[in-house]
Amino acid sequence: MLDKLAFSGVRFSYGDQPILQHFDLRVKQGEFISLIGPSGIGKSTLFQLIAGLLQPQAGAILVDGSPVENRLGMVGYMPQRDALLPWRTVVENAALPLEIKGVPKKEARETVRSQLPRYGLAEWAEAYPGQLSGGMRQRVSFLRALLSGTDIMLLDEPFSALDGITRMEMQEWLMAMWQETGSTMLMITHDIDEAILLADRVIVLTGRPIEQPVELKVDMERPRTTASRNRAQFQALREQVWGLLRQNVVTLPRQEAAARTAGGDA
Length: 266
Ligand SMILES: Nc1ncnc2c1ncn2[C@@H]1O[C@H](COP(=O)(O)OP(=O)(O)OP(=O)(O)O)[C@@H](O)[C@H]1O
Ligand SMILES: [Mg+2]
Fold this sequence. Notes:
The protein has helices spanning 43-51, 90-100, 105-115, 134-148, 164-181, 192-198, 232-261, and strands at 3-14, 17-28, 32-36, 58-63, 75-78, 152-156, 184-188, 201-204, 214-217. The chain is α/β, with parallel strands linked by helices. Strands 5-6-7-3-8-9 form a 6-stranded mixed sheet, sandwiched between helices. The chain has a 3-stranded antiparallel sheet with strand order 2-1-4, with helices on one face. The longest helix is centred in the C-terminal third of the chain and has 30 residues, at 232-261. The protein binds adenosine-5'-triphosphate and magnesium ion. The site of adenosine-5'-triphosphate (ATP) has 10 residues, from helix 1.
C-alpha cells in the first residue's frame, strides 16, 4: 500500500543549526504514530515541515506519493500552544479553517454547531476560550484542526497542559475519535505511557541533528484503555523507550560540549 506520508532524505536547518539530516519516515494510511524525544530536538519543526509551513532544504516530503506543496485542506495541525483566538467564541474559533477554505460563514458555523455535541461542547458554543477548562480548549482546538483537514492530523503535545484525570479521559476520547475518523494521526508527546497507549508505532527521535529514528511497534489489541498500561507487554515497551531516551539525554550534552571544544559555536 502507498504511504500516506513519507519523508525521504530530508535535511532541514535553522541557519547553521541542523535539525534533520538524511531523515526518512514512512506512515501508512490510518496509522497512529507517537513521536517522543528530548525537548528542543526538533519535533515541532518536523510538524511544521509536514504542514508545509517550513520547506526542507533537501529531500522530499510526500503525501500520497506526491510532493504536494499546498497542503491546505489535507493536513490538520493542532499546534503545541493552543492558538484559540480569545476574542472569538467556540463556534467562531472552530469555524475558522472552513471560512479560510471559502465556506460561507453561516454554513461553516452550522457545520461546527452540528459537531459540538460529540465534543461535549454543545452548551459552550457561544463561550469564549477564557471561560473554558483546559480539556474543553483542547477539544475546540482538536475540532478546529480536524476541520482544516482530516487526511493527516498533527497533534503537538495535545494534552500536556491537562491534569492527570482529564488527560486520561482525553486519551480515551482521542482513541475513539481516531477509530471513528480513520485519519492518519501523528502525535508528539513527552509522556512515555501516552506514546505507547495510543500508537501503532512509537518513533523515538534522537541525535542532533536527528538522523535515523528508532521505531517500536506496539502490537497490542484495540480497543485499549488506561488499564492496558498494566500489561507486561506495555511495561516492556516502556522500559525500551526509556532506555533509548535516557541514553540520549546522557549523550546530548556531551555532543554539544564536543562541538564547542571543536570550535563550532553553533
Ligand atoms: N523559527 C525558528 N528559528 C530558529 N530556531 C528555531 C525556530 N524554531 C525552533 N528553533 C530551534 O530549533 C530547535 C528545535 O525546536 P522545536 O521547537 O522543533 O523542538 P521540540 O522538539 O518541539 O521541543 P519541545 O519538546 O520543547 O517542544 C530548538 O533548538 C529551537 O530553539
Ligand atoms: Mg515542540
